[in-house]
């Protein structure tokens, strides 16, 4: 058993580590946006916080939809069905084109949500300006998602890591340029961060396209010689798997977004502190999220090979790895919270609130790692509908209601919402792990 575990860890690491680093690189760009906006002005920081609260649910929904291609491609690779890999690559590209207008429309209509909330009009206007600036890059992002998750299904996580990593310095440069202006560009503040984000999405798409065009293993698949699509049944199977994944991820991200929007009614310092603590927690979450994608590919690969024992070992190894890693992140948040918050701000009042919230973030690290890794393992078995129901219950019937009650009726305010998030994530962790333990035996 120990020998098998070590072997699986050696197989998981070359896929999982680049996947983690890819997620961290993408999250780093959000971190950079937050830090640079915070250094520009408090209003810019608040606008980015509110804007991303509305942007992220849209991004995560479509990320979840295209994430379905990871287990599908990995399954076909395990079953050695090469032609189906080719046709599903093409299906991903077509779906990106089809869904781009819907993503743009969702963001454009975010102004109605902003108007419905009791937010400072100046900050609300900045937040909508930021969102409008990202719209033009949305088709590129969805096409990137399609190519990225098909590549991850082929275990090409190193390429995704390289492309996202190389985008970081461009993100810093473009943010600074568009924030402060110069060289023919006027100073745009928070809105400039939105334009920089859209341009980065285009650069990532170019990188992913070039890799897919020139890599030898894809030349053998003849991916770009003719355009073939799956049958209507296979297309429906993709959507039947992808939509529950999208909704599942959406339930979690919208809970966090809803909390952020509720907190936006509080003083700007509280909103800023919440954004800082949430950004740190989101950074650590990228580790199990990246690993969960590798877990999905490994579990689905062995499922395609009809190797049940290896499939179960891959799932449990990945879940255990996530739990261990998140335990370390919790210790870090408890041990050095002042240092972590100090990276974002020198405002003592804001920092004091953020340090307090970081303690709550430490408490849900274990649950967050457990729920996302268990969901990843289940996704590898194409079990997505029951996890969707579990997350709906956990986040919207447990987490948010508890947070709202504590915040608004027990006068706990921002701390109450964070307790609610802990309850929601813990419920999801227990139920999803239980589902994996039962379903992987069937």
Structure description:
The chain has 442 residues and is an all-alpha fold. It has one domain (2-439). It contains 18 helices and no strands. The chain has helices spanning 2-40, 42-67, 69-78, 82-108, 110-116, 121-134, 138-153, 157-180, 190-214, 216-219, 232-263, 268-304, 308-335, 337-342, 348-363, 365-380, 385-408, 414-439. Helix 17 runs antiparallel to helix 18. The longest helix has 39 residues, at 2-40. The chain is globular. The two termini are 21 Å apart. The relative contact order is 0.13.
Q: What is the number of strand segments?
A: 0
Enumerate the spans where pLDDT stays under 50 for 5 or more consecutive residues. none
Number of domains: 1
Radius of gyration equals 21 Å
DSSP helix fraction: over 70%
- The average pLDDT is 87
Major sheet: size, sense and barrel closure?
none
Q: What is the tally of helical segments?
A: 18
Strand content: under 5%
Order of helices and strands: HHHHHHHHHHHHHHHHHH
Overall morphology: globular
What separation lies between the terminal Cα atoms? 21 Å
